[in-house]
Amino acid sequence: MSKKKTKSEPVEPKSGLFSKISEFREFVEESKGEMKKVTYPSQKQTLATCGSVLFLVVLIALFLGLVDVALAKIIEVLLP
Fold first, then answer.
1. Are 42 and 50 in contact (CB under 8 A)?
2. Domain positions in the chain
3. pTM value?
């Protein structure tokens, strides 16, 4: 009786140096294909995004600074 593999059974991993090299080559080829699908933002989009991030960082820093000063003042009043 021969046992047929079905799709629900896991495939046994191959062992050996040549199989690892083959897997690596397959990985590299698939990676090349995926890298061709990548789209990069234009310089204008990058600068706009960078500007937005910097603006939000400054805004949040100011907010946290004001909250820190306010809480420090409240603690000074409560704990003379």
1. no
2. 17-78
3. 0.55
